[in-house]
Amino acid sequence: MNEAFVVYGAAGSGSVPIEATLSLLKLPYRVEECAPWEGQQEENKLADINPMRQVPALALPTGEVMSESAAILIWLADSYPEARLAPALSEPARPTFLRWMTFVSSAIYALYWVADNPSRIIEHAGHHATVKARLFDRIARCWELMGAQLRPGHYFLGENLSVLDLYVATASRWSPGRRRFYEVAPGLAEVVRRVDTDSRLTAIWAERFPFTQGWER
Ligand SMILES: N[C@@H](CCC(=O)N[C@@H](CS)C(=O)NCC(=O)O)C(=O)O
């Protein structure tokens, strides 16, 4: 059995909430830096890890490798229930938790495959800006729908910080960015700001997704 978890990821990417979760759980892990959007060489690093050649992926101490950010976050939270990073199966908030974890992954995160590189589906470079703008409108609409349905407490699911909070705090910083997120989902703004400033996460944010000047575009 290997000793530590290995996260395949990059600063600012979907590996950040996973790194944050591992650090909250005080589990030993190391990061294999990999930014597949930077080109073939980086993509190739993932050839034996994730057939989708995407990050995040997580190698478990058993040697098994998981991909898919939502699945990894849910699995980590469920595997260490004492940390209360997800509602338990029997808790009333569990369906809401699963609903929005899956929503962020499938309705929002999946769109970046095109948004990050519109030439994957549209050859004509003159159309790329429009494709991106439409995808960012769609992402804003998804945040709006989520904001209209969730009734957060201190955190999205009540009084405990969950992996959903970490996931949304990260994904809401991707384009179209936080300003638009605050506009379309004002009811979610206070929670993400709370997660941004949580002292347990200061080091992770600083190292892996820093709040550099102008970040809140
Ligand atoms: N469904 C995947 C999406 C992962 C994803 O899109 N990752 C991006 C980085 S944040 C990536 O690896 N992009 C490179 C590519 O898709 O080629 C998940 O939830 O983990």
TrEMBL record:
Protein name according to UniProt: Glutathione S-transferase
Record-level Gene Ontology MF annotations: transferase activity
Source organism of this protein record: Labrys okinawensis
Keyword annotations of the record: Transferase
Keyword 4Fe-4S: no
Domain of life, source organism: Bacteria
Domain GST N-terminal stretches: 2-84
PROSITE patterns the record matches: GST_NTER (PS50404)
